[in-house]
Structure formats: structure tokens, C-alpha cells
Amino acid sequence: MSTATDRPPAADAAPEQGRAAQRRRWWPADPAGLLARWLVLLAVAAVWQLVALQRQSVFFPPLTDILTEARRSWLSGPASSAFLSHAVAEDVLPSLARLLAGWLLAVVGGVLLGIAIGLVRNLADYLSPPIEFLRAIPPPALIPIFLVIFGLGSDREVALIAVGVVWPILLNTIDGVRSVDPTLVDTGRAFRTGRVRRLALIVLPSAAPRIFAGLRVSLSLALILMVISELVAATNGIGRTILDAERSFAFTKMWAVIVLLGVLGYVLNALLLAVERHLLAWHRGARGATEAAR
After folding, report:
1. Taking the model in full, what pTM does it have?
2. What share of the chain is helix, strand, coil (3-state, %, to 5)?
3. Confidence band (pLDDT; 50, 70, 90) for 92?
């Protein structure tokens, strides 16, 4: 009669390995390195504080004053609203909504168009001159045109963000689709796999690492264009707050907004990295197995 001790070790190890793999998807691969990077950031903050206290410049206030202003501006609300002030709903949330709306439009348009171009042989070569021409136009130069087309309002900001950030997504998607191993595609055809299934099971997974690289670049650009779009003819938003602080010589408030932008950029990038780490865990595993085989 077999007992619990007669079970093969692999039977007990498999669930534990699965749980360990699940933890690695969401947990940093190098916690010590992450801690070191945070220590470097704290060291930079300490140097800023000491130099600002010594110089006593109105243009570069101490970091403690900046953080105090940030708390007063955005974290001084009632407990019923999680201590978020009215300025969060008035300026921060509308800016985030515009950023995400423009970025998501660029993601959908860039990925779909990039797949369509990448699947057609040599089409990207013919479209390269107009794409490079349009990509070279600075998005802020389009603000007057968008003012005429969309008028005042959020549609103008969303359109500017979408048009400005679509290019990294489009180009990375085209490169990712064109770099798919032809052997995999031919194997799918040999097994009479339909076009939709080949796209979903072969092309997109193979191109996903490059697509996510474009998504990360475009997300940082979206944050920049969000601020730029709100500097012109905007009635609210983070960019408008910076402009008002500059005009009133409220330099501490201006630096508080800059710190807020840094925090938002870090959080958005961390969330996208977490999604990428979860969805592309198979890619890192396959790459690790290939390197181990060498």
C-alpha cells in the first residue's frame, strides 16, 4: 500500500514551482537592486535639501517645502475623500483622463495599423518615407491646427497626445511583425491554421516584446504631451497649474507640480511593467531556457 511518502518528488515540487513562477511575475527579479536605486534617489533628495538650505534661492526651494506644498495642494482634503483635495478632481484627474484616452487611442490605432503593414511584404518599405516625414513633425507645432479643428476643450488635448505618441507604437509593431520567424508561420500554414489563429497564436506573441517596448516609450511621451497640450488655451489640468504658478511666481508650487509629474510617470511606468511582466513571462522563460541550452 502506497503512502504519502511514496509520491515522487516532482508531484510535490510542481505546485510549489507554479506558485514561485506566479510570484516572480509580480515580484521584482532583483529586490536588492531595487532597494539600491531607491537609496540613490534618497541620496539625491538629501543633497537637494542641503544645497537648497545653504543657497536660500527662491528659484530652488528646499525639498521639504516642496513636499509640504504638495501635501497642502493635493492631500489636504477630508478623510471621506481619502484626504484628496478638490484640486485633484479639478486638475489631476482630468489630466490623467486625457493622457490615458490619447494613449489608448494611439495603442489601438498603432497596433492595428502596424500589424496590417507588417503582414504585407515590402509594404513598410514603400510607406517608410511618409511615415518618417509625419513622425518628424513636432506635435506642439500641430496645436494651432488642432485648435481650429477641435476648438477649446479636451478633444484637442486627446488628439494631440494620440497623434504625438502613435509613432513608437506603430514602428515597433511593424518591426515586431516583420521579425516573426517565417518557420513558425509556415508551420502554422502546414497545419492549416486559419489566418486569425495564426495572428493570435504566432504573430502577436512573437511581436509582443517589441510592441511593449513601443508602449513604454509612448507612455512617457504621452505624459510630456499632456503637459504641453494644457499650456495653451486650457482651463484646467496639470499643465495649466504649472503655467499659473509660473505667472504668479509661485516657484514652490511649480516644483510641487513637477514632483507630482515625476510620481505619476513612475507609477504609470511601473503599472505597465507589471502588466508586461505578467503577459510576457513565457518570453523570459523561453529566453532563459535558450541561454541555458547554450
Report:
1. 0.83
2. 80, 0, 20
3. very high
